[in-house]
Write a structure and sequence with these properties.
The protein has two domains: 58 residues, Transcriptional Co-activator pc4, Chain A (Roll); 30 residues, no CATH class. 22% of the residues lie in helices and 35% in strands. The chain has two helices and six strands. The radius of gyration is 19 Å and the shape is globular.
Length: 118
Amino acid sequence: MPKIAPEDFSCEIKDFIGVLKESDKHDWCKAVAKISWNGRPATLDIRNINMAKGEARKGISLTDEEADRLTDILLENDYGSLEAIKEALDRKRSRFTIMNQASNCFDDNEKYVINISL
């Protein structure tokens, strides 16, 4: 199998989500980001990133479906504290106005309205 040179790849960091681990020795960090590789649709990536240079190294790319499944697997196997899970759910809920039996998709303030059954 022929080797692929690094210059044969291009990446664009579309959305920097957060740092998992910082390095105190250099500008690289292990991070979560949405990255587009070679002009393709962005995927959720966990990898070493140098934001100053806009470069990314070895890591893993996940589709949205794979990220959801990874979350399920981690929760099923008791990864993540209950407090961290509660805080994540509270942050997610705060992004939306939730109304029971909403008749349309927007309220007067043009916030997203999600109709849920409880």
